[in-house]
Design goal:
mainly beta, 4-stranded antiparallel sheet
Length: 191
């Protein structure tokens, strides 16, 4: 038996899933990003490198050498080659392709810490266990050539208004974002 822990470079966060890709690389899904076991070293890829989320519950590889992630913020994939470059250089960027409401994926809450929670079927479809039931994705039937949006925004509620304010100018081109809502809103915004 070999026990690997923080002393060898593994992050001190829960491990949710493990997978070995087609190139023989071991990927570790954690609550602090994706970790690559690279020889005797561990290299982490995070949101700073372009991952859509750091809290990853499930990970699988498809037949096109893309790793798929079931994470706190939803389902996304990234090219294995980009993930390897980001892990090994620490500076390379990853393009995450996120799926949600616009692709018909509503209420996606992955189930962590059970095995197996994600599997690849013989036909190439990827199956993910979620609190809402099983979700199947056919990577061969994804739309081709669609650009990845820079930012995704939700649909505004009719009783919520947003505007930029700069001093007395209530319709400024630059300034502080003012939001008025009839409801109590919790959360934070980082820009």
């Amino acid at each position: 038996f070999e026990r690997i822990a923080a002393e060898q470079g593994l992050p001190r966060f829960p491990i949710h899933a493990l997978t070995v890709d087609g190139g023989g690389n071991l990927w570790i899904a954690t609550a602090a990003g994706l970790v690559l076991k690279d020889g005797n070293q561990f290299r982490t890829v995070t949101e700073a490198n372009g991952l859509a989320d750091d809290i990853i519950m499930q990970v699988l590889e498809d037949d096109r050498e893309r790793l798929w992630f079931a994470a706190r913020r939803g389902l996304f994939y990234a090219a294995r080659s980009e993930l390897l470059a980001a892990a090994r250089t620490g500076v390379a960027k990853v393009t995450s392709h996120m799926f949600g409401r616009n692709q018909g994926l509503l209420g996606f809450t992955p189930t962590p810490n059970y095995y197996p929670t994600a599997v690849k079927a013989r036909d190439g479809r990827l199956w993910f266990a979620t609190a809402q039931g099983a979700v199947a994705v056919d990577p061969e039937k994804l739309p081709r050539g669609l650009p990845t949006p820079e930012m995704s925004v939700g649909y505004p509620h009719p009783q919520v208004s947003l505007r930029l304010v700069a001093g007395a100018d209530r319709n400024a081109v630059e300034g502080v974002l003012e939001m008025k809502s009839p409801a109590v809103m919790l959360g934070s915004l980082t820009a």
